[in-house]
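If you are new to this repository, start here. Below is one unmodified record pulled from the training split, so you can see the exact layout before writing a loader.
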Amino acid sequence: MNVSPKRPHTPRLLLVASALFFGAAYFTVRFPDVPGAWVGSFVSTLLIAMPSFIGLWRFLGSKRAGLSLLALAAFGFTIETTGVLTGFPYGTFYYGDSLGPKLAGLVPYLLPLSWIPLVLGAVAAAPKGRSRPRYLLWALSAAILLTLVDGVLDPGAASLGFWVWPEGGAYYGVPLTNYLGWLFSSMFAAVLLLFLGRLRWGRETPPPGLLDSLVVAVAFWAGVALFSGLLLPAALGAALFLYLLRRRARLAARRGIKVSDGVENGGSNI
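And here is the target side for that same chain:
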């Protein structure tokens, strides 16, 4: 009798981390003014970012991974500084003091740690085409996914004072121009990431670990939205969390990775 192989399961450690950060969102919302809160933001953001950074390092190698991270950080600071100074492409906003020291007094130094893992996860999660990669469609899919993620993130971050929209907006105080801006900047970032690592991105299935930081970040921001009473962002966060887990399982299956005792092992590049 033929026995079909078991479907890959999500590593237990990822689910535990997601649950812990979801729970941490409660304390972030209830005690936003704790002295030195920005230090906690830095530590938690670093912890969330590490899985995707390590995954990229293993996937692209030290040279390409380092170049990709530096290029994305430079682009992130450039587009955010432009946004704060001119309102393009997101609309008029500025960063609060909760995220700690800022570059030139405008953009928190924390930015690359919080934003780049979202880009890595979205590019890995987005479909790249069956026969051969169609890079522009791949980047567009990643940009749309990132914009949806921002539909969870931005209302909660604005409610915590991480950044401020002085003129308000239609979506929980966030203007719709912000999401057009995210679509634009995310598309550029995805193209940049794919171009710099095109030999590996084009030939191999991305490792599922590249999604882990995004999964945990979505769990955290869905918690922030829920505990802040932002029901639509919370529901969107729950849907995205389940979608990302499904995409992660598919990547694991394509790479032949199995989960034993809650930990991934094995696997081959396709």
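Two things worth knowing about this chain: The chain has a mean pLDDT of 91. The beta strands are 94-95, 102-103, 107-108, 163-164, 258-260, 263-265.
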